[in-house]
Amino acid sequence: MGPLRSLLPGGDRPTGPILPGALPEGMKVGAWRVVRQLGSGGSGVVYLVRRWGRLHALKLAVRPGDKRLEREGRVLRRVKHPGVVKLRAWGWWLGRKKGFPYLVMEYVEGLPLYAWARSTNPTPRQLARLLAQAAEALEALHRERSVHRDVKGANTLVRPGGRELVLVDLGASGYEGATPLTSHVLPPVTEVYLSPEAMAFAQAHASDAQARYQARPTDDLYALGVMAHRVLTDEYPFPVHLPRDLYWVAVQSGPAPDARERNPRVPEALAAIVQSLLARRPEDRYARAQEAAEVLLQAAGEGGRSGTSRHSSGTQGQGPPRGPRRA
C-alpha cells in the first residue's frame, strides 16, 4: 500500500446489511462521503464522493478482497499522464481482513466517446485529435510496461468542450510480471475489441487449463482501431450480429473494411491509419502507440470540416457478437 495507507482512515462500518453496490447518499467510505452512484462494471461500482468540498470518483470492489482493484491501483500509481485518470488514494472498506478494496480517483466530468460523438456530430478532424490523445495515454501506460486490455468507447471520457479525452477504468489492466487473476485463457476484455492474435491463441489453447494469453501493447492498438472505426462510422469493423465462431473467423480472416466505405466523409489519411491499427498481424500495426498518436495528429491537420453525420441514436453497431461479453 505504501505511504498512502497512513492517509486513509478506516471506513465507517454500517449497522445493517449494506452491499457495496448499494451505498446510500451520505454514507462515508473512509474519509469520502457518497453523493450518488455513477456506474458499475465487472470489478466494481463507482460513486461520486465528496471530501473537503471537492468531488472525486470512488471505485469500490463488489467482492471482498478483490485483487483486480488492487492491481488497477498499482497500474495507476505507475502512470502520470493528463490523458489517464489520476489516482488520489486507496484503502479498504470494512477493514482489510474481510473488507472491500477501493480506489479514489479524480472525478472526470464528461461523456463517453460514443455518446459525445452522437450528441455533437464532430468533424473527422476533431475525432482524430481525440483519438491521438487516446494513443498518447496508451503510450504512457506502455512505457510503464502496462497494458489497458479494455480500450473502448465506454472507457474514454471527453471533457466538456470536446478538446480533451481521458482514459478511465483500468479494471482489466495488467503489467509485466503480474500474476494472472482469472481462470480463463483470455483476460476479461470486451469481445468485440479482441485482437485476432488473442482469438487465435484462445482457439489453439482451448483445452489447456493453464494457458494464459499475455496481452501486449499491440492488443491495445487493435482495440484503439476498433474504437476509431466505430466512432467514425457508427459501426464496428466486423458484423457483430454473427454467432461467435463466425465472428472470430471474420476477424481473423481480415482485412477490416475501409472506414470510407461506410462513411465517405472520413479523410483518406485517417481511414488509412485506422486500417493500420486494425491490421490482422500485430507486426503490421504501428510499432508504438506514440507513432499512432503522431500520424493521427497529422491527419487532424489534414481533416475536413464536414461532420461525420453517422452518429445515430439507434441500435446500429452497438454491442458485441452474441455470446458472453467476458472471456
Which helices and strands occur, and which strands form pairs?
Elements: E1 28-29, E2 32-40, E3 44-51, E4 54-61, H1 67-78, E5 87-93, E6 100-106, E7 111-112, H2 113-120, H3 124-143, E8 146-147, E9 156-158, E10 165-167, E11 174-175, H4 196-204, H5 217-233, H6 244-253, H7 259-262, H8 268-277, H9 289-302
Antiparallel strand pairs: 1-2, 2-3, 3-4, 4-6, 5-6, 7-9, 8-11, 9-10
Plain-language structure description:
This protein has 327 residues and is an alpha+beta fold. It folds into two domains: 11-106, Phosphorylase Kinase, domain 1; 111-302, Transferase(Phosphotransferase), domain 1 (Orthogonal Bundle), CATH 1.10.510.10. Helix content is 32%, strand content 16%. It is built from nine helices and eleven strands. The strands form three sheets. Strands 1-2-3-4-6-5 form a six-stranded antiparallel sheet, covered by helices on one side. A three-stranded antiparallel sheet has the order 7-9-10. Strands 8-11 form a two-stranded antiparallel sheet. A hairpin with a 6-residue loop joins strand 5 and strand 6. Helix 5 (217-233) packs antiparallel against helix 8 and helix 8 (268-277) runs antiparallel to helix 9 (289-302). It starts with 27 loop residues before the first strand and ends in a 25-residue tail after the last helix.
